[in-house]
Specification:
42% helix, alpha+beta, Nuclear Transport Factor 2, Chain: A, 8 helices, binds zinc ion
């Protein structure tokens, strides 16, 4: 879009409006006009077709503050400005990412079900059961939701929750546990299955693996230690995985904590593959690191 285009009239503020027809002709003639599909245009004053000119150059102007950006550089810097200065983000993009997570979760549950077919519980013939309902996939998705969203196990005992699920698919009736104890068992089984696939994934990583350690105190005053592995997978994608979260029995000393960390690392065969450690600067973490260093040499 050239500044001398007849259809643009610049006012004292540099704001101008362009008619839809001239957008079309300009686009056709020089191919420089880019359709204003980006979300950033919703955050400029005036209608979306408004052209804001500074010394003849098309700019984007923020409607929330005084900032303005030359458009020639694309909209990435503008998105960053809206996010950092105003906490705004592209809701469409966010919805797309969310949808991808849903797809990935279902695919992962189906993959887990496929790997675990021998574990499949007895299937009672059920005249209501539609063919597409796979009880193993359902179990996996249920556990994922309970674990990832901190949902209490007792949720499965709620008659309102049961009614909702059974309304969505009556086949759920024959597989939905009626007691929270069953969920405890399912969660442990799923942890063990996931652990095997994580062990397999880590076994093919050739680089060193970095770790972070953190401590939590639960509502019942129990202390927990978590070990998180950070690495790039074989597709060079950054991964951050919680390997275990164990209750600490005994004193909170570095030596005692090291015992749990070594135990987890042995389970995953990682003791000799450490890159860096990251933890906060509490004094017992110094002792923890010293104990870990000794264990790495001994084992
Ligand atoms: Zn702004």
């Amino acid at each position: 879009m050239s500044e001398d285009n007849q259809s643009i009239t610049e006012n004292s503020e540099g704001l101008a409006t362009i008619a839809a027809s001239s957008v079309m002709s300009s686009e056709a003639s020089n191919g420089t006009f880019r359709g204003r599909t980006s979300w950033v245009w919703q955050h400029m004053p005036g209608p979306p077709e408004t052209i804001y000119l500074v010394n003849g150059m098309i700019h984007w102007r923020c409607k929330h503050c005084e900032s303005q950006y030359k458009l020639a550089g694309g909209t990435a810097a503008i998105s960053r400005h809206l996010m950092l200065k105003h906490g705004l983000e592209d809701t469409n993009q966010k919805a797309k990412v969310k949808e991808q997570v849903v797809q990935t979760s279902i695919q992962a549950a189906m993959e887990l079900a496929r790997q675990n077919q021998q574990k499949r519980r007895r299937q009672q013939p059920d005249i209501y059961e539609p063919e597409y309902f796979d009880s193993t996939v359902f179990e996996s998705l249920l556990i994922q939701w309970i674990a990832c969203d901190s949902v209490p196990f007792s949720m499965v005992e709620s008659s309102h929750f049961r009614a909702l699920l059974i309304y969505l698919n009556s086949a759920v009736f024959s597989v939905l546990p009626s007691s929270s104890n069953t969920l405890t068992t399912w969660t442990k089984q799923h942890y063990n299955l996931q652990r095997i696939s994580i062990q397999e994934e880590l076994s093919v990583i050739t680089q060193k693996i970095n770790f972070s350690i953190d401590l939590w105190t639960g509502s019942s005053n129990k202390a927990y230690i978590g070990l998180i592995a950070h690495y790039f997978d074989i597709n060079r994608i950054y991964k951050s995985l919680t390997l275990a979260l164990r209750e600490i029995i005994g004193p909170y000393t570095g030596e005692n904590q090291a015992k749990y960390v070594v135990e987890i690392m042995l389970e995953f065969d990682l003791l000799k593959r450490v890159g860096y450690w990251m933890m906060d600067n509490a004094t017992n973490n110094d002792t923890l690191l010293k104990s870990l260093a000794i264990s790495t040499l001994i084992i």
